[in-house]
Amino acid sequence: MLLIEFLLIIGYFAGVLTGLMGSSGVLVVIPGVILLGYTAHQAVGISLAVDMVASIIVMITYYRHGRANLKGGVGIATAAVVGALIGNRLTRYVPEVGLSGGYGILLFTNAFAF
């Protein structure tokens, strides 16, 4: 039961961050599910599923309030799809420790930049 409650808490915070700042749930989901014993590769997959659903819901809400520029978003999304395909192919060559370490460096870099 504690596992389900922890997963719900992770999902709640990921949703709040996505809705409030447009940030990816990756800030909460990946560390949270890794703490539960999932591998870094599994955590990324879980985070992507969470982000997909939450981001669509948030985008619809932003669009309804006139806060979404769909033309700009389509261009960025197209480039992001190409990048995602390339990144996905590269993951098979990245060991678990490299993925976790790279994620940590990315979080630190983002924290410093903000």
Mean pLDDT: 89
Indicate the radius of gyration in whole angstroms: 15 Å
Tell me how many strands there are.
Answer: 0
Total of DSSP H or I helical runs spanning 4+ residues: 5
Shape designation: globular
Major sheet: none
Helical amount: over 70%
Fraction of residues in β-strands: under 5%
Question: What sequence of helices (H) and strands (E) makes up the elements?
Answer: HHHHH
Secondary-structure content class: mainly alpha
Low-confidence stretches: none
**Termini Cα gap:** 37 Å
| Overall domain count | 1
Overall description:
The model has no long low-confidence stretch (mean pLDDT 89). The chain has one domain. It is globular. The N and C termini lie far apart (37 Å). Helix 1 packs antiparallel against helix 2. It is built from five helices and no strands. 82% of the residues lie in helices and 0% in strands. It has helices spanning 2-21, 26-35, 40-64, 70-90, 96-113. It has 114 residues and is mostly helical.
Key traits:
single chain, 114 residues, mainly alpha
Secondary structure: elements and pairs:
Layout: H1 2-21, H2 26-35, H3 40-64, H4 70-90, H5 96-113
Helix pairs in contact: 1-2, 1-3, 2-3
